[in-house]
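Record type: monomer structure entry
Structure origin: computed from sequence
Chain ID: A
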Amino acid sequence: MDALEALARLREGNARFAANVRSLDSLLSQARRGDLVAGQNPFAIILGCSDSRAPAEIVFDQGLGDLFVIRVAGNIVAPSQIGSVEFAASRFGTRLVVVLGHSNCGAVSATLEELTRPRGSQSRHLESIVNRVRPAVEPLLEGLDITSGTVVHFDDALIQRAVRANVRVASNQLRNSSEILEDLIEHHGLLIVGAEYSLETGLVDFFEGAPAPSV
């Protein structure tokens, strides 16, 4: 399946999810469990957030064996995530990668708070997540009064811009941080796109790097 076919399938599945319906194939996918023992052939790779409200298989109405899902708080890109994408794209021939952020992302909000009100007690492990989100959202705070001790209230529009900026940065990191992925993009039809899942509506907006759906 090429990247555009995979993208269309994700869009169709998400439309079903948002309409509170499920396909028979996804409902009965557990019947394929035995067939999948010998191998897998996922049609899309999803790098998404660990948030319990945004499970990719459900959001896109897919079943066992359909998606290769990598989940980490803030849908950040670190060496292990790049390696996981390389593995799936090379081993299974999967030609679509989706970096999936979501509205009201806690990791993004925590980074905004850290930039305005540093918390010395934060663990170094949590700090590593914040530091990977930081370059994407820091420019959005230019012009705001974020002097030490000042409480800054972030409106919904700023948080959404931060979520999308984080997705864009992660998508570009995947495109430009791996010789393997660069070769697959240039010569073998790999497509990396950025998207945001709305917790409120259930809809996914493929807003970065994705062609408009055909009519």
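Annotation 1: The chain has eight helices and five strands.
Annotation 2: The mean pLDDT is 90.
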